[in-house]
Amino acid sequence: MENAINWSELSFGYMKTDYNVRCWYRDGQWGELEVSSSEVINIHMSATCLHYGQESFEGLKAFRGKDGKIRVFRMDENAKRMQSSARGIMMAEFPVEKFEEAVYKAVKLNERFIPPYGSGASLYIRPLLIGTGALIGVKPSDEYMFLVFVTPVGPYFKTGFKPAPVCIMRSFDRAAPQGTGCYKVGGNYAASLLAGHKAHEKGYVAVLYLDPKEKLYLDECGPANFFAIRENTYITPASNSILPSITNKSLTQLAADMGLKVERRPISVSELSTFEETAECGTAAVITPISQIDDLDENRSYVYSKDGKPGPTCEKLYNKLFAIQTGDAPDPYGWVRIIE
Ligand SMILES: Cc1ncc(COP(=O)(O)O)c(C=O)c1O
Known about the structure:
This protein is α+β, with helices and mostly antiparallel strands. The chain has 6 helices and 18 strands. The strands form 2 sheets. Strands 1, 2, 3, 4, 5, 6, 7, 8 and 18 form a 9-stranded antiparallel beta sheet that branches. Strand 15 and strand 16 form a beta hairpin. The mean pLDDT is about 95. The structure holds pyridoxal-5'-phosphate (PLP). Pyridoxal-5'-phosphate binds next to helix 5.
């Protein structure tokens, strides 16, 4: 290796790796996977991804285990979610098997960038699907490009697994009631930038969005799902405008295995005062416990951690899921794929 990577200095940022994997959809079909060492893509200036947001992406991680093996977590779920996003904004669906093969190749070819076991760092995998056909009218493209690149990222919690504050601001929505909130498409993230920026300026890690129709129910928390713990129950929102998180889906299973009741239902804002623990969950951090939720419109605060420590259930769930991802615990549901 020319330049040794300082694994402990890694942030959640982009670092050039050796290869990416690409595939094109033309004349009604997907071609063969191609390996590229270029970081640049060459597309028409009138491509639909640039003008009309025909773009979907995914995010997943590969981990190096104590046994030296490389594990990727639930990539079939990411593949299926990207297909759902493609249907949602009328793009060509990328086949699940090809998606898995592309991820496999991208990870394997960049093996030297996978952080060592115990560093807390991981290899972030970013699949991308974009409309590349040159159009001016608002119509779906007839040409698409699929691409997977990877980049090593540092541990989300540099100073340990710690609760963080979030806020409610009713003047912003990230998605419309019947819109694209349940798809992983770029437009939702563009729509969340200003609210996220304002929240960061005020010292919060994220905005806890309310349902965009009535603003009565909890939706999701920045780029992560929300869950709460009360009386041995794992409670997470059912909503059409949130992204179905693969981490959340996994945690509901693990919570049930631990003997918790699981409820997926609309959660009223008025329930916030009744929860023992609240948290965000997603690929980036697995779980970010919430220290407090400040409702900036109603001038109310709901405090879940006074001592800077995560709640016991969040901690147990975090440890269990992370152990499965890294190979420290058995994988009873076949969530992990070993890259050989
Ligand atoms: C809006 C949004 N919600 C939730 C999540 C969490 O999903 P996952 O657990 O699949 O990473 C993400 C991240 O992918 C996201 O961007």
